Amino acid sequence: MPANRHILDVTGTLCPLPILLAAREMRKLQPGDLLEILGDDPGIREDMPVWCERAGHRLLELKEGEGGHLRSLVEKGPPRRPAP
After folding, report:
1. Please, are residues 7 and 32 in contact by the beta-carbon 8 Å criterion?
2. 25 contacts 38 by C-beta, under 8 angstroms
3. Is position 52 annotated as part of the catalytic site?
4. Using CA atoms, how far apart are residues 69 and 12, in angstroms rounded to an integer?
5. Inter-residue contact 10 to 42 (CB < 8 Å)
6. Span 43-70, pLDDT tens digits
């Protein structure tokens, strides 16, 4: 079954909002679903990989386009087990 793809446009927001909004959107998705995040905050280049690693998601792509627009493609990871 193919993964569902969702798009979140955070253009015009600055750190930490792009990551906070992405985290909120990701909670609505199922493991394996894809979230495409569109934004223009340069901080996304550093913040997105760190957030994905900490949250257990997989950053599939992080591209910069014209005018400094950034496109991230993130696959939702499996549910995290609580720490003992």
Report:
1. no
2. no
3. no
4. 10
5. no
6. 999 999 999 999 999 999 999 998 889 9
Q: What are phi and psi of 17, to 5 degrees?
A: -55, -45
Within 10 Å of residue 39's Cβ, how many Cβ atoms?
25
pTM across the whole model: 0.91
Q: How far apart are CA 7 and CA 53, in angstroms?
A: 20
State whether CATH 3.30.110.40 applies to domain 5-75.
yes
Length of the chain: 84
Residues 21 and 8: beta-carbon distance below 8 Å: yes
34-39/5-9 β-pairing: parallel
Q: Report d(CA 57, CA 13) in Å as an integer.
A: 22
Catalytic residue among 3, 7, 14, 15, which?
A: 15
